Amino acid sequence: MQIPTTPSHLLLPTSFDHDQNNMEAQQQHNFVFSSFMDLLLIPKKLPREDQAEDTVEEEENKAGIRLFQEKQWQAQFQKLVQFKLQHGHCCVPHSYSRDPTLARWVKRQRYQYKKKMSYKVGDTTTSRSTTQSTFSTRRIQELEAIGFVWHPPSSA
After folding, report:
1. Ramachandran bin of 144, using left for φ above 0, alpha for ψ from -120 to 50, beta for the remaining angles
2. Count of CB atoms within 10 A of residue 80's CB?
3. pTM for the predicted model, two decimal places
4. What angle do CA 42, 44, 46 make, to 5 degrees?
5. Taking the alpha carbons of 13, 17, 18, 23 in that order, is the dihedral positive or negative?
6. pLDDT at 128
7. Is the separation of the CB atoms in 89 and 147 below 8 Å?
8. pLDDT for the residue 129
9. Phi, psi at 36, each rounded to 5°
10. Is 41 helix (H, G, I), strand (E, B) or coil?
11. Residue closest to 91 by CA, chosen among 99, 83, 101, 100
Protein backbone atom coordinates (compact mmCIF):
# COMPACT_ATOMS: atom_id res chain seq x y z
CA MET A 1 0.00 0.00 0.00
CA GLN A 2 1.39 3.41 -1.05
CA ILE A 3 1.00 6.09 1.60
CA PRO A 4 1.66 9.69 0.60
CA THR A 5 4.52 11.36 2.40
CA THR A 6 3.66 14.00 4.94
CA PRO A 7 5.78 16.59 6.66
CA SER A 8 7.71 14.94 9.48
CA HIS A 9 6.52 17.47 12.07
CA LEU A 10 2.97 16.14 11.61
CA LEU A 11 3.88 12.50 12.20
CA LEU A 12 2.96 11.39 15.67
CA PRO A 13 3.98 7.98 16.99
CA THR A 14 1.19 5.70 18.15
CA SER A 15 3.60 3.39 20.00
CA PHE A 16 7.30 2.70 20.34
CA ASP A 17 7.05 -0.86 18.99
CA HIS A 18 9.08 -1.08 15.77
CA ASP A 19 7.61 -4.24 14.28
CA GLN A 20 6.60 -3.96 10.58
CA ASN A 21 2.79 -4.33 11.06
CA ASN A 22 2.71 -1.67 13.70
CA MET A 23 4.79 0.69 11.53
CA GLU A 24 2.25 0.35 8.70
CA ALA A 25 -0.64 1.09 11.08
CA GLN A 26 1.30 4.05 12.49
CA GLN A 27 1.85 5.46 8.99
CA GLN A 28 -1.86 5.13 8.16
CA HIS A 29 -2.82 6.83 11.41
CA ASN A 30 -0.29 9.63 10.82
CA PHE A 31 -1.56 10.21 7.26
CA VAL A 32 -5.18 10.56 8.44
CA PHE A 33 -4.14 12.82 11.31
CA SER A 34 -1.91 15.02 9.15
CA SER A 35 -4.66 15.36 6.51
CA PHE A 36 -7.01 16.50 9.26
CA MET A 37 -4.43 18.95 10.57
CA ASP A 38 -3.84 20.32 7.05
CA LEU A 39 -7.53 21.29 6.97
CA LEU A 40 -7.23 23.06 10.30
CA LEU A 41 -4.11 24.93 9.29
CA ILE A 42 -5.54 26.46 6.10
CA PRO A 43 -5.26 30.22 6.61
CA LYS A 44 -8.58 32.02 6.73
CA LYS A 45 -8.94 35.20 4.66
CA LEU A 46 -10.44 37.90 6.82
CA PRO A 47 -12.19 40.88 5.27
CA ARG A 48 -10.30 44.15 5.45
CA GLU A 49 -11.94 47.44 6.25
CA ASP A 50 -10.36 49.07 3.21
CA GLN A 51 -11.51 46.27 0.88
CA ALA A 52 -13.36 47.40 -2.25
CA GLU A 53 -17.08 46.73 -2.71
CA ASP A 54 -18.09 43.17 -3.47
CA THR A 55 -18.31 42.09 -7.07
CA VAL A 56 -21.75 41.23 -8.41
CA GLU A 57 -20.90 37.52 -8.27
CA GLU A 58 -19.77 37.75 -4.63
CA GLU A 59 -22.88 39.76 -3.78
CA GLU A 60 -25.11 37.11 -5.33
CA ASN A 61 -23.26 34.33 -3.52
CA LYS A 62 -23.68 36.15 -0.24
CA ALA A 63 -27.32 36.69 -0.99
CA GLY A 64 -27.78 32.96 -1.42
CA ILE A 65 -29.12 33.09 -4.93
CA ARG A 66 -29.36 29.57 -6.26
CA LEU A 67 -29.40 28.47 -9.86
CA PHE A 68 -33.08 27.47 -9.88
CA GLN A 69 -34.06 30.78 -8.31
CA GLU A 70 -32.08 32.62 -10.97
CA LYS A 71 -33.87 30.69 -13.72
CA GLN A 72 -37.25 31.54 -12.19
CA TRP A 73 -36.26 35.19 -11.89
CA GLN A 74 -35.12 35.31 -15.52
CA ALA A 75 -38.38 33.69 -16.69
CA GLN A 76 -40.43 36.36 -14.89
CA PHE A 77 -38.11 39.07 -16.18
CA GLN A 78 -38.76 37.87 -19.76
CA LYS A 79 -42.51 38.02 -19.08
CA LEU A 80 -42.04 41.62 -17.93
CA VAL A 81 -40.12 42.42 -21.13
CA GLN A 82 -43.04 41.01 -23.15
CA PHE A 83 -45.50 43.04 -21.07
CA LYS A 84 -43.51 46.20 -21.82
CA LEU A 85 -43.46 45.41 -25.56
CA GLN A 86 -47.26 45.05 -25.53
CA HIS A 87 -48.14 47.95 -23.22
CA GLY A 88 -45.20 50.36 -23.55
CA HIS A 89 -44.43 50.43 -19.81
CA CYS A 90 -43.42 48.15 -16.92
CA CYS A 91 -46.17 49.15 -14.47
CA VAL A 92 -47.97 45.82 -14.17
CA PRO A 93 -51.21 46.41 -12.23
CA HIS A 94 -51.59 44.53 -8.94
CA SER A 95 -54.82 43.05 -10.29
CA TYR A 96 -53.41 41.98 -13.68
CA SER A 97 -55.80 39.12 -14.50
CA ARG A 98 -53.88 37.81 -17.54
CA ASP A 99 -50.86 36.92 -15.39
CA PRO A 100 -51.32 37.33 -11.62
CA THR A 101 -47.94 35.65 -11.08
CA LEU A 102 -46.21 38.45 -12.98
CA ALA A 103 -48.12 41.07 -10.96
CA ARG A 104 -46.96 39.45 -7.68
CA TRP A 105 -43.39 39.15 -9.01
CA VAL A 106 -43.28 42.88 -9.93
CA LYS A 107 -44.61 43.79 -6.49
CA ARG A 108 -41.95 41.55 -4.88
CA GLN A 109 -39.17 43.26 -6.90
CA ARG A 110 -40.27 46.63 -5.57
CA TYR A 111 -40.40 45.26 -2.04
CA GLN A 112 -36.89 43.76 -2.32
CA TYR A 113 -35.59 47.02 -3.78
CA LYS A 114 -37.09 49.00 -0.90
CA LYS A 115 -35.52 46.62 1.63
CA LYS A 116 -32.13 46.88 -0.04
CA MET A 117 -32.25 50.66 -0.17
CA SER A 118 -33.38 51.03 3.45
CA TYR A 119 -30.57 48.68 4.52
CA LYS A 120 -27.98 50.77 2.65
CA VAL A 121 -29.28 54.01 4.11
CA GLY A 122 -29.20 52.50 7.58
CA ASP A 123 -32.84 52.59 8.57
CA THR A 124 -32.78 52.43 12.37
CA THR A 125 -36.45 51.52 12.72
CA THR A 126 -35.83 47.87 11.91
CA SER A 127 -33.13 45.40 12.82
CA ARG A 128 -30.38 44.44 10.38
CA SER A 129 -31.62 40.86 9.96
CA THR A 130 -35.11 41.91 8.90
CA THR A 131 -33.93 44.74 6.65
CA GLN A 132 -31.23 42.94 4.68
CA SER A 133 -32.36 42.04 1.16
CA THR A 134 -31.37 39.25 -1.21
CA PHE A 135 -31.79 41.63 -4.14
CA SER A 136 -28.61 41.90 -6.21
CA THR A 137 -27.24 44.98 -7.94
CA ARG A 138 -27.26 43.11 -11.25
CA ARG A 139 -31.00 42.51 -10.98
CA ILE A 140 -31.61 46.18 -10.21
CA GLN A 141 -29.56 47.14 -13.27
CA GLU A 142 -31.45 44.69 -15.51
CA LEU A 143 -34.80 46.05 -14.39
CA GLU A 144 -33.71 49.66 -14.77
CA ALA A 145 -32.38 48.91 -18.26
CA ILE A 146 -35.91 48.12 -19.45
CA GLY A 147 -37.45 51.13 -17.71
CA PHE A 148 -38.76 49.50 -14.54
CA VAL A 149 -40.53 51.98 -12.25
CA TRP A 150 -39.61 51.49 -8.58
CA HIS A 151 -42.28 53.88 -7.27
CA PRO A 152 -45.28 53.55 -9.58
CA PRO A 153 -48.34 55.77 -9.53
CA SER A 154 -50.88 54.54 -6.97
CA SER A 155 -53.15 53.21 -9.74
CA ALA A 156 -50.68 50.43 -10.71
Report:
1. alpha
2. 20
3. 0.53
4. 170
5. negative
6. 47
7. yes
8. 45
9. -65, -45
10. coil
11. 83
* pLDDT one digit per residue (tens) for the chain, 156 residues: 556 555 555 555 555 455 556 656 555 555 555 554 455 555 545 555 555 556 666 666 655 667 888 999 999 999 999 999 999 999 999 999 999 999 999 999 999 999 998 866 554 554 444 456 778 999 999 999 999 999 988 754
Domain residue ranges in the chain: 9-40, 57-145
In this structure, the number of other CB atoms found within 10 A of the CB of residue 67 comes to 7
Cα-to-chain-centroid distance, residue 8: 40
DSSP of 126-142, one letter per residue? Answer: S-HHHH-----HHHHHH
Which residues, 6+ apart, have CB-to-CB distance to 64 below 8 Å? 134
CB 149 within 8 A of CB 89: yes
AA identity, residue 144: E
Q: Which region, left, alpha or beta, applies to residue 88 given φ > 0 means left and ψ of -120 to 50 means alpha?
A: left
Distance, CA of 61 to CA of 77 (rounded, Å): 20
| Pair 109, 101: CB distance under 8 Å | no
Measured CA to CA, the distance from residue 84 to residue 99 in angstroms comes to 13
Instruction: Provide CB contacts within 8 A for 95, sequence distance 6+.
Output: 103
